Amino acid sequence: MGRRDPGEFSARQWPDWSFWRRDRPGRRPAYRSRLIVVGMTALSSLVLIKRMTEIAHGPHGAGGGIAIALLAAYCLGCLLAPWYGPPAPPRTRIAIVAAMFACGAAPALILGNPAYLTDLTYAIAIGLMLLPLRASVLLGLATAAGQIAWMQSTRAGVDWGQVVTLVGVTAALGTVFALNFTIGHLRAAREQVKRMAVTHERERVARDLHDILGHSLSTMTVKLGLTRRILESAGDTAPAVDEVRELETLCRQALSDVRATVSNYRTVSLAGELAGARLALRAAGVRAGLPSATDDVRPELQGVFGYVVREAVTNVLRHSDAGSCRVRLGPDWVEVTDDGTAPGGATPGHGLTGLAERLAAVSGTLEHGRAPGGGFRVLARGPAAAPVTTGVPSTEAGLA
Fold first, then answer.
1. Is the separation of the CB atoms in 116 and 103 below 8 Å?
2. Among 115, 141, 150, 194, which lies 20 to 30 A Cα-Cα from 350?
């Protein structure tokens, strides 16, 4: 059998009060919940003062003094156990509960009065707070059964009022502890959800910025190199001016994409990415075999396939010496191949990792590596994709 999920409730599980000692960002440690529990226990244990007064005015002699001292220690335990017990390890918790039971039951045993076992309600409540539920419930049942049996063995009979008080006060204190426990874990879960949302948004922005700027800057670098070569080799500046104009347009588009990404309004179209790929490959002098239409691709996959084309073409411009690049499309797959030198290293970069995450979000898969005939190949499949074969019809165009 596998291990039980820590977040799953179990009667055998030790109550996890770790949220009490966990500092939340920008706030003080969570002392408020602890003070509430200690305050409720302190108020309810004021009844023990009445018990000590009753014993002090009774004809108990030296035994009465010992009983009062033990009850005073019991009162002190009612204040300290809810504060120091929850963060303690299991052995310490067991020792605390055992000490509480010893101090709470001793007066009844010393003075021979089973009614005094009602005071054990606070020890049982502390047990509910510190011990696994199964163990604490058994302690409570054993205490109630022991009190009833002891009362039945006396001439006075069972005082059901004392038994009801034992059960009622224990249930009330246990409910307070359970509510505080639940609220604390809900608050901790809410803080964790907030942190996860922030992390997810950071990853989204980082992935989108990488995809946008990587492609745009690669295209700009190619065009700047082409412009430099034109200016160095020819006296006619008109082609260079045309390249500069296209660079200006690319810069404006990249700035617009960055703003849209940060605002989460940016969308990617497969047709638009193919047009951008055609422009970038032509500027780099790479022969492009690109589809003339994207109608065959399923609508829900066009966006993520646009990212695939963008990243794969960017890698062709940045990492290979390819002379040609070809893109093939199917209803639920896209393949980008080139004839250049495949990038070294077995570990994928940020771009391919981001593509794999995008495809996983739509139940798709990503394959990349050396192509059978040389070069590099990126293949993305959507959910329930059919195997790609040479006979699969595609919308690829001839090489430009």
1. no
2. 194
The span from the CA of 222 to the CA of 240, in Å, is: 13
Distance CA 337, CA 29 (A): 56
Residue 232 burial by Cβ neighbours in a 10 Å radius (0-12, 13-18, 19+): exposed
Count each helix (H run) and each strand (E run) in the chain, helices first.
11, 5
User: What was the pLDDT predicted at 192?
Assistant: 75
CB 176 within 8 A of CB 35: no
Dig out the tokens for 27 from the structure.
């706030």
Contact 280, 214 (CB under 8 A): no
* Direct distance between the N- and C-terminal alpha carbons of the chain, in angstroms, rounded to an integer: 61
pLDDT digit string, tens, across residues 302-342: 888 888 888 888 888 876 678 888 999 988 899 999 888 76
Question: In whole angstroms, what is the distance from residue 330 CA to residue 90 CA?
Answer: 60
Beta bridge partners of residue 368, listed in sequence order: 378
pLDDT tens digits, 12-47: 778 777 766 654 444 455 566 667 777 777 777 777
Computed over every residue of the chain, the mean pLDDT equals: 76
H or E segment to which residue 223 belongs: helix 160-233
Most distant CA pair in the chain: distance in Å? 123
> Judging by DSSP bridges, how do beta strands 333-338 and 324-330 pair with one another?
antiparallel
Beta strand 287-289 with 333-338 is: unpaired
Can you give 224-272 as a three-state secondary structure string?
HHHHHHHHHHCCCCHHHHHHHHHHHHHHHHHHHHHHHHHCCCCCCCHHH
Could you tell me the domains of the chain? Answer: 18-195 (no CATH), 206-381 (3.30.565.10)
pLDDT at 10: 62
Count of CA atoms in the C-beta half-sphere (13 A) of 122: 31
Lowest mean pLDDT among 65-74, 81-90, 172-181, 257-266: 257-266
Pairing of strands 287-289, 365-370: unpaired
Q: How far apart are CA 273 and CA 333, in angstroms?
A: 16
Give yes or no for a contact between 134 and 12, defined as CB atoms under 8 angstroms apart: yes
Whole-angstrom distance, CA of residue 47 vs CA of residue 50: 5
- Strands, E assignment, the chain: 287-289, 324-330, 333-338, 365-370, 376-381
**What is the per-residue pLDDT for 260?**
65
Average pLDDT over residues 51-60: 82
